[in-house]
């Protein structure tokens, strides 16, 4: 399979983004390829398109499956497995966020809770616990808000995001009016 320059550019960029999302560059490239390819791809297709080994493809598919980002399909009278994205772009974003929360935010919240249960031994620890409490509260708020967003339909999420700039303007206007008083 030969990639056009536009498709190759997108796939390579997905590799770079994958490392920011929490998986390696090759896995990001594989997912980018699957996202923009109309038909499901076999491991051989992926291997040839990205010029990587079948073993690397196999490990990458397992990683994408652990993130619940790909689905396996079978075709009648064909023993090969075909891979495609599992769901819409919105569902992908939700899954990536959810997995990042599980891998990064939840352990941080757990550590913060444990540290906040202990009584501070001195003034430095009192100050440190105050900051840890602020971080804990911020992460709890963001996690709760994100959970609410994840339960919304893509249409409602899209509407909410479009309202975002308008809400910011209203809040800024309110602040200006209050400051004039």
Structure description:
With 181 residues, this protein is mainly alpha-helical. It has 2 domains: 5-85, Winged helix-like DNA-binding domain superfamily/Winged helix DNA-binding domain (Arc Repressor Mutant, subunit A), CATH 1.10.10; 89-155. The protein has helices spanning 5-21, 25-36, 43-50, 54-66, 89-117, 123-150, 154-180; strands at residues 70-74, 81-85. Strands 1-2 form a two-stranded antiparallel ribbon. A hairpin with a 6-residue loop joins strand 1 (70-74) and strand 2 (81-85). It is extended. The N and C termini lie far apart (67 Å). It comes from Colwellia psychrerythraea (Vibrio psychroerythus). This is HTH-type transcriptional regulator. Belongs to the GbsR family. InterPro entries: ArsR-like_HTH, HTH-GbsR_regulator, HTH_MarR-typ, MJ1563, WH-like_DNA-bd_sf, WH_DNA-bd_sf.
Can you give me a brief rundown of this structure?
Belongs to the GbsR family. The protein has 181 residues and is mainly alpha-helical. It is built from 7 helices and 2 strands; from the N terminus they run H-H-H-H-E-E-H-H-H.
Question: What composes the largest sheet?
Answer: 2 strands, antiparallel
Helix and strand sequence: HHHHEEHHH
Percentage of residues assigned to helices: over 70%
CATH hierarchy: architecture of the largest domain: Orthogonal Bundle
Average pLDDT rating = 91
**What distance lies between the first and last C-alpha atoms, to the nearest angstrom?**
67 Å
- Multimer state: single chain
Widest sheet, order of strands: 1-2
Low-confidence stretches: none
**Within the CATH hierarchy, at the fold level, what is the topology of the largest domain?**
Arc Repressor Mutant, subunit A
Count of individual domains? 2
**How would the global form be characterised?**
extended
């Amino acid at each position: 399979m030969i990639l056009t320059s536009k498709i190759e550019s997108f796939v390579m960029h997905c590799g770079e983004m994958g490392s920011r999302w929490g998986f390696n560059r090759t896995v990001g490239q594989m997912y980018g390829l699957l996202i923009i390819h109309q038909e499901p791809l076999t491991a051989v297709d992926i291997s040839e398109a990205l010029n990587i080994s079948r073993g690397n493809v196999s490990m990458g598919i397992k990683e994408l499956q652990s993130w619940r980002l790909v689905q396996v399909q079978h075709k009648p009278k064909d023993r090969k497995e075909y891979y495609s994205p599992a769901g819409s772009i919105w569902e992908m974003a939700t899954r990536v966020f959810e997995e990042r929360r599980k891998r990064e935010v939840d352990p941080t919240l757990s550590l913060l809770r444990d540290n906040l249960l202990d009584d501070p031994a001195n003034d430095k620890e009192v100050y440190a616990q105050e900051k840890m409490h602020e971080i804990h509260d911020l992460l709890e708020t963001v996690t709760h808000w994100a959970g609410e967003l994840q339960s919304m339909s893509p249409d409602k999420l899209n509407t909410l995001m479009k309202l975002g700039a308008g809400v910011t303007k209203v809040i800024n206007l309110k602040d200006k009016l209050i400051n004039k008083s």
